[in-house]
Design goal:
2 copies of one chain form a homodimer. In chain A, strand 5, helix 11 and strand 6 (about 285-290) form a beta-alpha-beta unit. The N and C termini of chain A lie far apart (about 60 Å). Chain A contains 14 helices and 6 strands. In chain A, strands 3-2-1-4 form a 4-stranded parallel β-sheet, sandwiched between helices. Chain A has a two-stranded parallel sheet with strand order 5-6. Chain A is globular, with a radius of gyration of 20 Å. The first copy, chain A, has about 350 residues and is of the alpha/beta class. At the A-B interface, helix 3, helix 4 and helix 13 of A face helix 3, helix 4 and helix 13 of B.
Chain lengths: ~350, ~350
């Protein structure tokens, strides 16, 4: 491991088991049948353990959107042209994208990081330009990233977690934008889970059946090309990943090192979360899962993480949009947990 | 039909198909792959049709909680004592219940209607006292309600819809509280869907297996007793229902007559919704479904209504709590629908 990656090996924090127990006990005293708030109870208790206090909150939310292009787009694996990545970065900056609207509604901080797009976006207000390259190399023909690109992308994620910590974030969301990035995610998922491209390549932004077949073939070709080097998660990430996937991986590891709960989004985000856990198993404790995406491979990823997401709305947009949507539920879960009366306070009788 | 029930036969409004088409067209122009917001797209379009405008809103939400006791509680079909109904009405009034917390978080109007509890609550601020009786009769031995109790309960629901309309509500939620009301709901569901008590009696607030079995036996006994009179939905409601179930039924019919969209909650609420549809088929268009409850019979009810609810969080509390939770999602769906940029506005290219 090169010197500039040593931060990845720093220990992650441990959840606070005292706070977890206190929150669990509190749930049992609230004026409702035990368990009757379902997942809202479990998520409040989990957040209490991560925030180290009996009454958790999800008011201060930090959202980072990482954008980057993918050389593999030249294989015709996306329903949209590559120019859309840069165009969407501009759309984020102007407030017109789904995640812009959601962040505004939630009063969340939204940071946009352009790691490297094939088309120049120019300077944009509120967009951090990292210029790691005009997208990755086509991983069906070569390694997607150089060592220094990988290190810089991971570091950009770490920087974002540092920024989140500075703002006092109670919750971190990482989102992404990058035409063809479900192809990179599928390739990584195949490498990490030992599954076939047919199981993990899906329609993404809207491929037809022939397109999905082509995508699976491209992934199969890439897996054959890099086969000897996929046993180590960082090297798999460098060869098959993308700038934004590496940044998300770095961000999730850094959040776990700093004790910031992470709300994982959909397919791409979950692949990054799995990479983060493979690199640093302690990351697993810091991950909450927002939703089950419509991308078919996502369910396999979630099973591999033993994740039971809050929502299943058939969303498949990325940008952190599923996670942002789940914030609304998380906030209500916290309000119920924190503000409901106990049986004793209300003078209500418990179970017979 | 007696004179005081004639209002039930008034026509329901029709959704606005022009607004639906406009909303549908708008969704196709927003800067995202078509369909990538999943159910958030569908619900925004549905709400647009119901509100008769291209850009729907769910800001002004009116929540009515109807409370009433059930004579069938004496058969030992609930995990909680009957006194809890009145105690929870007090808890609603003091702001300590789940729905109180949710309504406050959402800035929703919360109206509490005590139709008739076995234990006296006394006058309470913000609680409308209807005094229809000290709960219903035990429907395993007699009809639950008299004709005049049924009419008064339906009318209380109608009055609530009138009140919602006066406040300019963009969305109506009906909740309920009543120890043993899942037993009444199960009996009604059996009558309406021609299913067996074993399929529709569940643990409710927390019965063990023996308790569920006893509940199914009580329902079976009631169905046998009233068998000759269950073909007509209003009479089934009078014999097997409860004050709060009748009020919800009346409220849903009245909302559909006034053109107020209804967000249905869990098991009890869905039984009332099905009754409303059987009495007035036009009600179906005005129903949105919030969540799939953990009560096993709810899934059969939802299938009968061809409903695909937004959430599946394992909630089983009632009080309208699942519907209130879904409001947060509905609001984000509206914000995305209303505020995202179109491809043209953002200069983003569409599908290849």
């Amino acid at each position: 491991m090169t010197a500039n990656l040593h931060w990845l090996t720093q220990a992650t924090k441990a959840p606070n088991e005292t706070a977890r127990s206190a929150a669990q006990a509190r749930q049992g005293q609230l004026t409702k049948p035990p368990g009757s708030l379902g997942k809202l109870e479990a998520i409040a208790i989990q957040l209490a353990a991560l925030q180290g206090c009996e009454k958790p909150r999800a008011e201060k939310v930090f959202i980072s959107i990482f954008a980057g292009d993918h050389g593999v787009a030249e294989e015709g694996v996306s329903a949209f042209p590559q120019a859309v990545t840069a165009e969407m970065v501009k759309n984020f900056a102007r407030g017109g994208a789904a995640i812009s609207v959601l962040a505004k509604q939630l009063g969340a901080t939204l940071q946009v990081v352009n790691l490297g797009t094939a088309f120049d976006t120019g300077e944009l207000p509120g967009v951090l330009q990292c210029n790691l390259g005009k997208g990755t190399a086509n991983f069906a023909r070569a390694a997607a990233m150089t060592q220094s690109q990988l290190a810089a992308a991971l570091q950009a994620g770490c920087d974002s977690a540092v920024q989140a910590q500075k703002t006092g974030a109670q919750l971190y969301i990482g989102g992404e934008m990058g035409i063809a990035n479900t192809t990179a995610a599928a390739a990584l998922a195949c490498a990490l889970l030992q599954k076939s491209p047919q199981q993990l390549a899906g329609p993404g932004t809207g491929l037809d059946q022939a397109g999905v077949q082509r995508k699976a073939e491209v992934v199969a070709r890439a897996l054959a090309l890099h086969a000897a080097h996929l046993g180590e998660p960082l090297e798999a990430l460098r060869r098959l990943g993308g700038f934004e996937i590496a940044a998300l991986t770095g961000a999730f590891i850094s959040c776990a090192q700093r004790g910031i709960p992470v709300l994982a989004d959909g397919y791409i985000s979950t692949v990054a979360a799995l990479l983060a856990v493979r690199i640093q198993p302690g990351v697993a404790s810091w991950l909450l899962f927002a939703h089950r995406s419509a991308e078919p491979g996502h369910i396999l990823m979630l099973e591999a993480m033993q994740a039971e997401p809050l929502l299943n709305l058939g969303m498949r947009l990325g940008e952190g949009s599923g996670a942002a949507t789940a914030v609304a539920i998380l906030r209500l879960a916290c309000a119920l947990h924190n503000d409901m009366a106990t049986f004793a306070e209300a003078g209500v009788q418990g179970k017979i």
